[in-house]
Input
Amino acid sequence: MKKRIVIGNWKMNLTVPESTILVEKLIKSLARVSNTEMVICPTFLDIYSASKELRGTNILLGAQNLFFVDEGAYTGEISPVQLANFVKYCIIGHSERRINFGENDKMVANKVASAVAHGITPIICIGDTLHEKRDGLSKVVVMSQLETALSYLTESEVSDIIIAYEPVWAISTSGGMVCEPVDAEKMAKDIRSLVSALYGKKAATDVRVLYGGSVKDSNAEGYAKIKNMDGALVGAASLDYNNFTKIVIAYDKLASSTRKESTK
Ligand code: PGA
Output
């Protein structure tokens, strides 16, 4: 069983000096964590300095996006080749990219394939909007996003990726409604069932499924107890080292209670 994982998505926050200070604090406050993988995803500008600071620590680095072409005339984009030396992970298809920058499922699939081809583990974000939830379409939408995102991957590649269920309506900047752990757990079960149907039972058991959406110190324990899930993708609360540390500790404490049931 892979370790559970807590990922901080810093979004478009922090200058380089601010990021350096936060990284320093996290290195100290998380030094004793050993059962949970920890990842921070700063802006592209902060990645180089963070990679130097994090060398030899237990905290890994991720990016928040990438483009699916290796190099060329793509002003403003960054390629997996450029990122591969610095990051182990990359968030792909975050709802803020889908909504604000027009990323569609096909682009997400291309980005996922390109990340995998360059040895970067994609953290694929899928999630329903409030509108879709009110129309009873949550499951249909999320499963369709997932199926397309995985289009170009093999069974063994799917085993190694990360899928983050992030209901858009529960993300702090979109109003931050509460997604109860029991509802996140149901979606995780559906996600594994789909992976099982498409890529087999092993992939469905091995793939790590996370919850994201307003996870913070005060509610982390509830999400950490979800048996079908392997961690959290944390936005706003990851900018506060104290809050992020408490979230990691909540997951780390329960690290030994392994996932009991993975697929139907
Ligand atoms: P949040 O963001 O924790 O601030 O809700 C999560 C995310 O968008 O990844």
